[in-house]
Each structure stands twice: as C-alpha cells, then as structure tokens.
Amino acid sequence: NAGVTQTPKFRILKIGQSMTLQCAQDMNHNYMYWYRQDPGMGLKLIYYSVGAGITDKGEVPNGYNVSRSTTEDFPLRLELAAPSQTSVYFCASRLTGLGYGYTFGSGTRLTVV
Amino acid sequence: GENVEQHPSTLSVQEGDSAVIKCTYSDSASNYFPWYKQELGKRPQLIIDIRSNVGEKKDQRIAVTLNKTAKHFSLHITETQPEDSAVYFCAATAMDSNYQLIWGAGTKLIIKP
User: Fold this and answer.
1) Is A101 at the interface with chain B, CB within 8 A?
2) Residues of chain A with C-beta less than 8 angstroms from the C-beta of B42
3) Which end of chain B lies in a sparser environment, N or C, as judged by fewer CB atoms within 10 Å?
4) How near does any CA of chain A get to the CA of B79, in Å?
5) pLDDT single digits (tens) A15-57
C-alpha cells in the first residue's frame, strides 16, 4: 500500500491563480480530510468527506472547494489564490467507525506570491 | 462540541529524563484519544492511542494514561532521546461531528543533550 499520496509536494502560485491539490489513498478508507498548517501552528480542518459523493465544511472552508467522486480521491481546489492561503496542506484518511487514527499524506507546501 | 486543551506549549527536558504532556477534553462522550508526533517538515504520525475503556497503555518508552472522571489524558515519554524532539499533538473524538478528531494546539518537545 502506498497509503495517502499527495501531489504536488511544492507549488508557488501567483495571487489570483487557481490550482488543485491532489490526494489519493489506496486503503479503502471512507473518511478523508483536508487540513492546513501554518508555520509553528496546529492543524485546521478545511473540508472532510465520509464517503464518495459526501463532503462537509470544516472550520476554515472559505476560498476552497472539494469533490469526492470516488472512494480513493479527494482533491482540494483553490480558486483565486491569496497570500493568506500560503501554508502546508495535509490530506488524511481513516477507516469508518469509532476509534481509528488518521493516516496523513506527506503534505503540499504552497506559497502564494 | 468537543474542545481539547494541551499543555505545556513548549517543554524542554534533559536527555534521559522523562517528559509528560497533558491534554484535557470537554465532551464526556469522547472515547478515542490518539497522540501524534510531527518532526520538523514532516507529516503527523500516530505514535499511540487509547480508548475510553482502558486507563493506561504502553509501547516501549511511551505511555498514555486516561482519567475519564477528570477528562484528561497524558503522554509520558521515559528515557528521552534526541530523536524524541518534535511537536506532539493530542486529539479526542468529536462524537457529534462524524467522529472527526479535535486537536490540541501542540507541544514542542526539546531534548537537551
């Protein structure tokens, strides 16, 4: 198993540009999450999904969109990038039900200039 | 909803000494409490977890204790080594939000040689 795979690892965007951060998992996990982590700070939930076709907002969803057309993939879309979106983005997944930890991807480091 | 507080924010210990990080949670229904370690520039990784029907769990030099009455749980690291230097995050399950994890703010553990 590759686990949770995120691409790209690094990206520099200009203000106003758009991009999609890719996340794929091969563990048949129904639950998937997108977090952002600013330097020296904790994890903030952007969006999450409990299964294909179902998504819900986290605590900081503004400026982002997600889709979940398959169990494996959970892309995060940034529209009209702003400097405030400079951060490290982590995708995570877990098994359905109580008492399961998250498996994280290696992250995407995004800089908006 | 669930709220998790983590203390201290920074902990500096001499190599070979023990380190203790404490978290408190607000929802008495929470029943799963994982701990994650995040090394600089890396993804968070699950190091140990505990369920509410257990009071203590050990894995080599790492242990977690849970006090359900007081609603707190702690991470204990004995015989600390340089490779223990990292940020540690605690979390608790949010029972009213599809069992997603609610995160503590993190503790930066510094091991002094």
Assistant:
1) yes
2) 106
3) C
4) 26
5) 999 999 999 999 999 999 999 999 999 999 999 999 999 999 9
